[in-house]
Design goal:
Helix content is 26%, strand content 23%. With 367 residues, it is of the alpha/beta class. Strand 5, helix 6 and strand 6 form a beta-alpha-beta unit.
Length: 367
């Protein structure tokens, strides 16, 4: 096999249990974007078996895929486009987010044989999705044909626990909840916390938390919140590949497109048959692979299907040997955090962009 992403489902379960205990409330497992690249259905099943109360996705088609896989747990889809098949969503008991009066009307119009279950999304300061100026226009007439089961918003800076905006958003959320309660919907599930708030802002737990990146064992921000290890999380994904080629190369030999780097001494180079088509960031500088007990850095530019690492002159590696692209760091290998930093990005992007050419292998325990 050329490469594989090994997903440790026991780590997913551990993280769900830890986060739910930390929150002390219901937990929605965020499995959008193919479960952050880990695999939609296997991760959803693992999360539910560990005690998750809800599943959350961005797109309606993701929710439908979960239903078609036989999952009957509550599912919330929060980024459903106008003109979508709302009737089918309602028939499949998929709960829908509404962020505008137009969305409420469209969902209400589709609620003929069965009432839609709706979570009202309110904008408390993220200034992305959610009701803002229209919130004061809502009246009982707008929601008479649907069942309001939840109200939610999203923190903009929960990964910066000391920021004043977090308190401002919390206050605004309480004000908007009070308006909903004035219509009689006092039992609607209130949910505001993402992973960072779940870990660090217990006042925002309300009735349910939504955990994404932390459920996969990664820190929302290693600089402000700490590492996975310090948070008690277990990274669930390890990506590894087999060396395609190992060869001796003399000093001062240029490597890769644009000849942006050259060997500094006689060395062995290893070619990895993965590239930016597989999710390896083209601009990564300072990352590499774990090979034969040490880190071997990237040299030259990442290509579409391959990249090159400097194994060192003394390396005993040979073609076909497995190397670790990233893992949990317990053996000093590179982590998703390292790759994120090396490419000027974040760990979220590293795991979610691992492409479909890399098969997911599921394991009860990886490390």
């Amino acid at each position: 096999m050329r490469a594989e992403a090994i997903v440790d489902l026991s780590a997913i379960k551990h993280n769900v249990q830890l986060l739910k205990k930390t929150a002390g409330t219901k937990l929605l497992a965020v499995v959008k974007a193919d479960a952050y690249g880990h695999g939609l259905v296997p991760v959803a099943q693992a999360a539910l078996s560990a005690g998750a109360d809800y599943l959350g996705v961005a797109l309606l088609e993701e929710a439908i895929a979960l239903r078609e896989a036989g999952i009957d747990a509550p599912i919330l889809a929060w980024l459903v486009q106008p003109g979508s098949d709302f009737k089918r969503a309602i028939e499949l008991d998929i709960e829908l987010a509404a962020a505008s009066l137009a969305a409420l009307k469209e969902i209400s119009d589709a609620s003929t044989n069965k009432k839609a279950k709706v979570h009202l999304e309110v904008d408390t300061g993220m200034t992305r999705g959610g009701f803002l100026s229209e919130w004061d226009q809502i009246d009982a007439e707008h929601i008479k044909n649907i069942e309001i089961v939840g109200i939610f918003s999203h923190f903009a800076r929960a990964d910066e626990p000391g920021e004043k905006q977090n308190e401002e958003q919390l206050t605004r959320f309480n004000e908007m909840v009070a308006r909903l309660h004035s219509f009689g919907f006092t039992h609607a599930i209130r949910h505001l916390s993402n992973s960072a708030a779940t870990l660090k802002n217990h006042a925002a737990a309300f009735d349910m938390v939504r955990t994404g990146i932390a459920m996969y064992g990664l820190s929302p921000d290693v600089n402000t919140l700490g590492t996975s290890q310090s948070l008690g999380l277990r990274p669930a994904m390890q990506v590894r590949a087999a060396l395609y080629l190992v060869k001796d190369v003399p000093a001062h030999t240029p490597v890769g497109y644009g000849a942006t780097e050259s060997t500094s001494a006689d060395t062995k180079l290893g070619v990895i048959a993965m590239g930016y088509a597989d999710g390896i960031p083209r601009i990564a500088h300072g990352a590499g692979v774990w090979c034969a007990g040490k880190r071997s850095p990237i040299i030259g530019r990442v290509s579409m299907d391959q990249f090159v690492v400097d194994l060192g002159a003394a390396s005993k590696a040979k073609s076909g040997d497995w190397v670790v692209i990233f893992g949990n760091g317990s053996h000093a290998e590179y982590t998703a955090d390292d790759w994120g930093a090396a490419s000027g990005s974040i760990n979220y992007e590293i795991v979610t962009r691992i492409g479909p050419r890399v098969p997911r292998i599921y394991s009860a325990h990886v490390y």
